[in-house]
């Protein structure tokens, strides 16, 4: 694991943990991101990543799926459960199933290998910007009621019929956005703001995947949904009877 780079007067943009077992690629990524103003640490496997997360604050984890021992998907699941940070999954090109699985586990974005260091930098900035806006300090605490839903922006907690919902950051953001304006149709492009801040290339499937996960958690039958309804060819709207 690399120590944090020295304070060279740059305005730090965020603290990133790179989890990558390729010892030729990792130093290049660390140096590029550090030169761009990030504080970067490197862990070569899941155990080292866990140890770092327990000991140091982190804003964003960049996880390679293919790791020695425990894979990046299992690590992603644990990070999303235990830490409120952004996650970018890195997959081998063509592994669509792994990308969708990573999003299902709560990743905020994905990047196929081989990737451009500048694209990784842009995606990291986008995820971190969204995380800052979504964090509890981004807006005064407010409690929103939408039918049987109670959505607390201050604590980032939501419940349905009084039962707490176990939502990822992205699922919470989507629910709050849709429920905040019942009846309004939101296009996928509009909802991408919740998924990764509306930056870099659009990825409609990411929105659909997160909506599917959210529907499952609120008991919405995708064939006849009660709350989140599909507007074919456009996007989604939140329905209250």
Automatic annotation (TrEMBL):
Q: Which GO terms describe its cellular component?
A: cytosol; protein-DNA complex
Q: Give the UniProt record's GO annotations in the biological process aspect.
A: regulation of DNA-templated transcription
Pfam families recorded? Response_reg, Trans_reg_C
DNA-binding region(s) from the entry? 140-240
Residue ranges of domain OmpR/PhoB-type in the record = 140-240
| Signal sequence residues | none
**PROSITE patterns the UniProt entry points to:** OMPR_PHOB, RESPONSE_REGULATORY
User: What SUPFAM superfamilies does the record point to?
Assistant: C-terminal effector domain of the bipartite response regulators, CheY-like
* Keywords assigned: DNA-binding, Phosphoprotein, Transcription, Transcription regulation, Two-component regulatory system
Q: InterPro entries this protein is in?
A: CheY-like_superfamily (IPR011006), OmpR/PhoB-type_DNA-bd (IPR001867), Sig_transdc_resp-reg_C-effctor (IPR016032), Sig_transdc_resp-reg_receiver (IPR001789), WalR-like (IPR039420), WH-like_DNA-bd_sf (IPR036388)
Task: Give the top-rank taxon of the lineage listed in the UniProt record for this protein.
Answer: Bacteria
As one GO molecular function, the record gives:
transcription cis-regulatory region binding
4-aspartylphosphate-modified residues are 64
Instruction: Identify the residues that the record assigns to the Response regulatory domain, covering every copy.
Output: 15-128
Membrane spanning segments where?
none
Give a short account of what the protein does.
This protein is a positive regulator for the phosphate regulon. Transcription of this operon is positively regulated by PhoB and PhoR when phosphate is limited.
State the name under which the record lists this protein: Phosphate regulon transcriptional regulatory protein PhoB
Q: What is the protein's species of origin?
A: Nitrospirillum amazonense
The top of its lineage is: Bacteria, Pseudomonadati, Pseudomonadota, Alphaproteobacteria, Rhodospirillales
